[in-house]
Amino acid sequence: MAEPFVALFFVVDGQILLHKCRLENAEHYAEMRNYPRSHMDVWERHYKLKYNKDFDFYPRGRVIYDMRKDEFKIFYDTCCAKQAFKIRMMLGNRTCILKDDSNYTCSICRNHIKNEE
Fold first, then answer.
1. Sequence ranges of the domains in the chain
2. Cβ of 21: how many Cβ atoms within 10 Å?
3. At residue 32, what are phi and psi to the nearest 5 degrees?
4. What long-range pairs does 18-26 form, CB within 8 A, spacing at least 24?
5. Cα–Cα distance between 75 and 101 in angstroms, integer?
6. Strands 96-100 and 71-76, bridge-based pairing
7. What's the whole-model pTM score?
8. CA distance 62 to 37
9. Interatomic CA distance for residues 32 and 20, integer angstroms
10. What digits encode the pLDDT tens for the residues 20-54?
């Protein structure tokens, strides 16, 4: 069985840029376990120079673990639902909740929403 993890991710041109850590190395917040770095920090450190865009330009998401419910939650931009499901598959047969979340809205979605108003 795949080892459990928490993570954050970006999706650039369909490719998943996944940054994960094992649960024992995760940040603790109440009963939740989370990847210890922010999207902005990871982007600035690894991708800013390569892509020359801000951290919130591309679709992104996060995998957290809820200790109380013994389940993983994957929050993501609706643009990257397919990639979020691929990440879900990496967690094997563990209980996972997939949820699109406006906190991770990329520039394409923001512009689309703005144009509809």
1. 5-116
2. 17
3. -105, 150
4. 18/87, 19/46, 20/63, 23/65, 26/65
5. 6
6. parallel
7. 0.91
8. 11
9. 15
10. 999 999 999 889 999 999 999 999 999 999 999 99
